[in-house]
Amino acid sequence: MTENRLAGETSPYLLQHAHNPVDWYPWGDEAFARARAEDKPILLSVGYSACHWCHVMERESFENPEIAAIMNRHFVSVKVDREERPDVDQIYMQAVQSLTGHGGWPMTVFLTPDGEPFYGGTYYPPVEGHGLPAFPRLLQALAEAWANRRGEVVASAQKIGEALGQSERLRASTGLLTDEILFGAFQALSAQFDETEGGLGGAPKFPQPMIWEFVLRFWKRSKNPRGRQMVHTTLTMMARGGMYDQVGGGFHRYSVDPHWLVPHFEKMLYDNAQLASLYLSGWLAFGDPECRRVSEETLDYLLREMADPAGGFYSATDADSEGHEGKFFVWSPEELREVLGPDDAEYAARYWSVDRGPNFEGKSILYVGGEPDPERIAPIRARLYAARARRVHPARDDKVLAAWNGLACRAFAEAGRALGRADYVAAAAKNAEFVLTAMRSGGRLLRTWKAGRAKLKGYLEDYAMVAAALVALYEATLDRRWLDEARGLAEELLRLFWDEKLEGFYDTGVDHERLIVRPRNLFDNAVPCGSSVAIETLFRLAILTGESRYESAALKALRPMADLMTRYASGFGRFLCALDFHLGPGIEIALVSPPGGDGLAPLAAEVFGRYLPNRVVAGMVAGDPKGAEGIPLLQNREAVGGEATAYVCRNYACELPVTDREALARQLDAL
Questions:
Q1: Model pLDDT, residue 1
Q2: Which candidate in 200, 535, 588, 644 could, as Cys together with 649 as Cys, close a disulfide (CB 3.0–4.6 Å)?
C-alpha cells in the first residue's frame, strides 16, 4: 500500500500532492535513509502552488496509478516546494541548467542516495511529444541504468558535482566601483528597450521592477531624458494592459506576448509588493496620478485578498480555476450586459476594448485601449468586482514567507508615509510585529508560517528583506524599536551568512543542514537575491548607526559584482540600486519634534513626498536621550525655538536647521 507522507506538511503545494498514489516524502533525512537502505535513486520533483505546468504534470503523471507504481518500485520520490526551500531549488536548478541549458518548473531531478544529481529536466509528458520523452519510459530507462550501468551514473553525478562546486567562485573585479558601471548598465538596458510597448525585448515580457527602479534612479542621477521615457512608457503600458488586473487590482506574473496583454494569470506577492513600490516611485518622480492609483490599487488588493488576519501576507494565487487558466478573470459582452445593464456595459466594453472582439479563448482579457478615466470607470469596476467575487476563485497559496513579507512590509511602510495613508503604515507595523513574533524561534528567524505553524531556518534573503522592511518602517514611524530590530537582524545576518574568506554571503546559515554544496545565488531574478538586499540594507544601516563594519562588509560583497553589473545588467537590478545608493550623493535628514508635541507632519510630508531614493531619515523627540543613542545623525539635535525642526545633511555636512516647510523645500531643491 502506498504511504504518502505529505499530509502533515504546511506547504499548500505539498498538500496538493498528499493524495497522489505516489509514495512521496518531504525533503529530509528519512527519504535519503530509505534510498541508501534500499539502494534506490531519489526522484526529486520541485514546483510551487501557482505553477500551471506543475498542475499539468500532477494530473497527467502523479495521479496516474501506473506511472506512480513505476516511481514507487524504482525510486524514493521527494516533493519540494521551491518557495519554502530555495536552497534545494537553486542547487538542483543549477544542475538541470548545466545538463540541458535551460531550467524551469516543474523540475524533475534524479539523485544518488547521497544527493548527487545525475540526470534532470523540467516537465515530462506521459506520452512522447513536443520533443520530450515519455515520463514512464524515462523512469524505466533511468532505473535500468542505475541497476546495470552504475559506473556511468556515478561518473555523470561527479561531473555535475564538479560544475556545482565551481559556482561559488567569483573573480574579484579589478575595477573600481564608479558611476561608469551605472552608465554602462543603463546603455545595455537602453539597447534592449521596446520603444513602443515598454519593457525589455519581446515575448514573453516580465515586469522586472528592480531594473526600472534602477533606471529611475539613473534618471535622477544623470537627468538623462531617455531614462525617464523608458520608465514612464513601461509603467504606463503595464498598467493599461491585461497583465494588470483591471477589475481587482494587482499584477499577474508576466505577459506571454510583447504587448502586456495575455498574462500567465497567477499573482505572486513578491511581484505585487515590488511593483507597488515601483509605481509609488513613479508617482513621486513624475507626479503622474496613474502611477499613484496603480500603487494604491495594488496595495489595496494585497490588504483585501492576501492578508492573513494574524498580520502576514499570503504567497500567491493560482492561474487556474475550474481547471481552466484565466477563467476567473475574463469576460464576454453578454456577461458585462448581465452585470451592468446596456449603457454601462457599452461604455465598459469600449473602455476595456471588449468591443474589439475576444482575445483569449473566446472571451476577453480587459485592457485599457485609450486614456484611462478612473472616476467614470470606478463604480463600474466595483460592480464587476462584486460579480466576479461570486465566481469560483483560483486556489490561494496561504503560506507566509518571511522574505516576501519583507518586500510587502517595505512597500506598505514607504507608501503609507509618502501618501499619508495611516492604514498602510499600520499594515506594515502589524506585519513586522507578526514576522518578529510568530516567525522567530529562539531568536532565529524562520522561513515559512501557515495556520499557526512556523518552521525552516530563514535564509539570507529572509534576514535581508525583513531588515530592509524594518528600516523603512523606522523611517515611516520614527519608532526607535524598528531600527533596533533591524540592527539585530543585521548582526545575525553577518554572523550566520557572511564568510570572511569568501568576502561574501552564502544563502544558508552556518547552522543549516549540510547539502551537497552551500548555495550562493548572485542573480536578481523575479525576487531580488539575498546578497543584493543585504548589501543595500547594510549601507543604509551604516549611515543610520555609524557602524563601519556594515559598510565594510557591503563593499567587499559588492566589489566583485562590478563586471557582471555592466555586462549583464538585466540580472543585477537590485545590485545596481545598491551601487547607486553607495555612490550617492546621499541625503541624511534628521527630524526632531518638540517634547509632548508632534508638529512634524508638514516637514515629513516635504521629505517623503519627493523622489529621493538615496535619502536616509532619522527622528526623535527633543530631549529624549535614548532617541539619539547610537544614531550619529541625531546627536546634539534640538527642536529650535520649541518647534519641529529638520536638519538636512549631505556627506556628513549639514545645512542650517529649519522649522518651516518652505525653507526645507528650498534646501532639498538646492541638493
A1: 47
A2: 588
Q: What is the three-state SS of 476-487?
A: HHCCHHHHHHHH
Cell match 519593457: residue? 199
Amino acid at 96: V
The domain defined by 12-166 folds into Glutaredoxin (3.40.30)
- Amino acid present at 289: P
Helix or strand run (H / E) with residue 496: helix 480-497
> What backbone torsions phi and psi does residue 45 show, to the nearest 5 degrees?
-115, 120
Least confident span in 407-416, 471-480, 538-547, 589-598:
589-598
> Using omega within 30 degrees of 0 as the cis cutoff, is the peptide bond preceding 379 cis?
no
Distance CA 461, CA 442 (A): 19
How far lies 670's CA from each of 493, 613, 646, 650, 655, in Å? Answer: 37, 16, 15, 11, 11
Tell me the CATH number for domain 179-195+208-319+397-512+521-583. Answer: 1.50.10.10
CA angle, residues 34, 39, 44, in degrees to nearest 5: 65
CATH class of 587-670: alpha beta
The whole-chain average pLDDT of the chain stands at 95
438: Cα separation from own chain's centroid: 21
Asked if residue 585 has a cis previous peptide bond (ω within 30° of 0), the answer is: yes
CATH 3.40.30.10 in the chain, residue ranges: 12-166
Degrees, nearest 5: CA angle 167-171-176: 140
Q: What is the pLDDT of residues 189-240, one digit of tens each?
A: 999 999 999 999 999 999 999 999 999 999 999 999 999 999 999 999 999 9
CA atoms within 13 A on the CB side of 484: 8
Q: What is the dihedral of CA 392, 354, 386, 376, to 10 degrees?
A: 160
User: For position 173, what pLDDT does the model report?
Assistant: 54
The model's pLDDT over 265-276, given as tens digits with 9 standing for 90+, comes to 999 999 999 999
The residue-averaged pLDDT of 105-117 equals 96
Cβ atoms < 10 Å from Cβ of 456: 20
Grid coordinates standing for 358?
Answer: 475576444
Place of cell 525642526: 645
Cβ atoms within 10 Å of 478's Cβ, excluding its own: 22
Radius of gyration, alpha carbons of the chain = 26
